[in-house]
Design brief:
By secondary structure, this protein is α/β, with parallel strands linked by helices. The chain contains 20 helices and twelve strands. It is globular and about 85 Å long. Its main location: nucleus.
């Protein structure tokens, strides 16, 4: 055996082990923890044997007194030590193989299906990558016995009153005016005070009802507080709020909203709805509806720093940019897309969560002053501060709507309009889309986890009618457990759907016509905007609507393009980013009369077993 080679490999591997906070983060995950514990156990055993004077490495004798015997003894002990190291390395790789992992070319250990593990050991000194999905975590829906209603019925805002005709819910903001929230009186004398560093600020992680009551007492005595949420979309149908971060002028709090899901609304709802208390959030569009969905919380009196960034026409609208611009803080966004279902929360994730609200009240003060100064400098009658409150008001007025399955839902599948499918292929898309939706509701999984959009399109394109063909088709994909367990069902759906081709021919033809018209109009608009750009005019780039997308981590959009300038300072323009006004009539829904009655999507579960603003 090449002992020196294995020893060199082991030495190289240990140098790339995560350390300090990164090690504690990875140690929360079973794959990493079990490997470390096994290595530690064998290493300790080896050290114990080395330290034994009576029986070192099984030689059966203590260290000899004669110099020649001692030399031979040391050589034998050295050989045995290297052999043990070799055994440990072999054992390490055996465990990796059992857990279906291998070392990639980039030095990261990853699943053999191509999906990288929770970051394990980075090569060449690179920091470990953080996974948005840790597949070994037990679903909190089971662990905390969370009741989830995924039925194919509209969401009921039970905490809101209904209109007289019973047709809509009335948001409490409807009884208030945006002018009730504008506070310009004391801005001229306002002197923003930078909060102390995190380590110098009192902090509490709230994991029980007692702590929640104490937080409620604190919020009852303040006039303003900052809020942020951490969310997981990938392993539930509607999504789960995993954490709530709250900061006052003097303290930081993090609420474990998985453990306390049934109690958060009870104890905190009144403070969010209180119009006399200012709530400061950044890019609150998603947070607002998540609060409604999970806790029955409706926000009144919001100042959205993301909207303020837009009114101030800042270079970027992200919280990361505001932290750097106003606070000189470089935010660590490595954990932005981490799996926030993980428990216990590692210190690095707690630190990340606190940073999102710790400086937000100070940023709020700075932005109010700048907005007020802008209004005095402006020659127009527009009030920038009022505009921010109007925008924030409109954000709060949004009400959560559950995604519902209809006979036309499949037409919103991302990538479908440009696929050029015939009626038979379109029928397969419809069948798979319906099966995926029903299964996702019953299992409380995201549709993207059950069957990604790209896989639906690929199956519809090739229409496999045997399980072997289906296996080959999805072999190169990342792990798809629900596909692996339902090969026969998927094949039956394909076969059955292919027989319904006639019902989908008209819709298929319409899709092709719409796509051709869109491409023509987009090319024309691109030509016009390029000509305007060459003449020095301002070019406005709009993103094409993506329709229904695969579930992505922390609510990220699956569309491409960010609208930032390229190295030459000119806007990059892509055809798919341009929305031509000439194609507005192409967005009308198509209708292929396909019944969904064969699958029961009305399921009530009581389980007992993430834009520019974001980064």
């Amino acid at each position: 055996m090449d002992f020196n080679h294995h020893l060199s490999d082991l030495s190289t591997s240990t140098q790339s082990f995560p350390s300090d906070d990164d090690f504690r983060f990875h140690y929360n995950f079973p794959e990493f923890r079990h490997l470390i514990e096994e290595i530690a156990r064998k290493s300790q055993s080896m050290l114990n044997q080395i330290g034994s004077s009576e029986n070192i490495w099984g030689l059966g004798s203590s260290f000899p007194a004669d110099i020649d015997d001692a030399y031979e003894w040391i050589v034998n002990a050295h050989d045995d030590a290297l052999e043990l190291v070799d055994e440990i390395v072999d054992e390490f790789h055996r465990v990796l193989k059992e857990q279906d992992m291998e070392e990639g070319e980039d030095g990261f250990f990853k699943m053999k299906d191509g999906k990288k593990c929770v970051g394990f050991f980075g090569a060449n000194g690179k920091k470990p990558k953080v996974s948005f999905h840790v597949h070994t975590l037990r679903k909190p829906q089971y662990h905390y016995n969370l009741a989830v209603d995924n039925s194919n019925q509209p969401f009921q805002h039970v905490w809101l009153e209904k209109s007289e005709d019973g047709q809509r819910f009335i948001h409490p903001l409807e009884k208030l005016s945006v002018f009730d929230f504008v506070d310009e009186d004391n801005i001229e004398s306002l002197v923003p005070v930078m909060p102390p560093p995190l380590e110098c600020t009192p902090f509490k992680l709230i994991e029980d009802v007692k702590g929640l009551k104490e937080l409620a007492d604190k919020l009852s005595s303040v006039d303003e507080f900052a809020v942020d949420l951490e969310h997981n979309q990938y392993r539930s149908f509607q999504g789960l709020t995993c954490l709530m971060q709250i900061s006052t002028r003097t303290e930081d709090f993090i609420v474990d909203t998985l453990k306390l899901r049934d109690h958060v609304g009870t104890h905190l709802r009144e403070f969010f709805m209180d119009p006399t208390k200012k709530k400061i959030l950044h890019g609150a569009d998603r947070d607002i509806v998540w609060l409604q969905r999970d806790f029955g919380i409706y926000v009144c009196n919001l100042f959205d720093t993301g909207q303020a960034s837009r009114v101030l026409k800042l270079e970027r609208y992200s919280l990361q940019h505001l932290l750097q611009l106003y606070c000189g803080v470089t935010a660590n966004k490595e954990y932005q897309n981490a799996d926030w279902r993980a428990r216990p929360l590692p210190d690095v994730m707690i630190k990340y969560g606190r940073e999102d609200t710790h400086y937000l009240l100070y940023i709020y003060d700075v932005m109010r002053i700048k907005l007020f100064e802008l209004s005095k400098e402006s020659e127009s009658s527009d009030d920038p501060l009022l505009e921010v409150y109007e925008r924030s008001y409109n954000v709060c007025m949004k009400l959560y709507e559950k995604e519902l399955l209809t006979e036309d839902s499949y037409l919103n599948l991302k990538g479908l309009r440009g696929a050029g499918f015939n009626g038979q292929q379109l029928a397969v898309v419809s069948g798979l889309f319906e099966w995926r939706d029903v299964l996702a509701r019953s299992e409380d999984e995201s549709t993207g986890f059950i069957l990604p959009n790209k896989v639906i399109l690929e199956i519809a394109k090739q229409m496999p009618v045997t399980t072997s063909n289906l296996r080959r088709l999805v072999a190169e994909r990342s792990r798809l457990p629900y596909v692996e367990r339902n090969h026969d069902i998927i094949i039956n759906i394909v076969r059955h759907s292919m027989q319904k081709a006639a019902a989908f021919e008209e819709a298929a033809l319409r899709l092709k016509e719409e796509h051709a018209a869109f491409e023509e109009a987009a090319a024309l608009r691109l030509k016009e905007q390029n000509a305007a750009s060459e003449n020095g005019a301002i070019v406005q780039v709009l993103k094409m609507p993506t329709g229904a997308c695969d579930a992505t981590p922390q609510g990220h959009s699956a569309s491409e393009g960010n609208g930032f300038p390229d190295k030459k300072g000119k806007k990059k323009i892509k055809v798919e980013q341009i929305v031509a006004s000439e194609t507005s009539d192409l967005k009308k829904p198509l209708s292929a009369k396909v019944s969904t009655s064969t699958l029961d999507a009305n399921i009530l579960l009581d389980l007992d077993s993430d834009s520019d603003d974001m980064v």
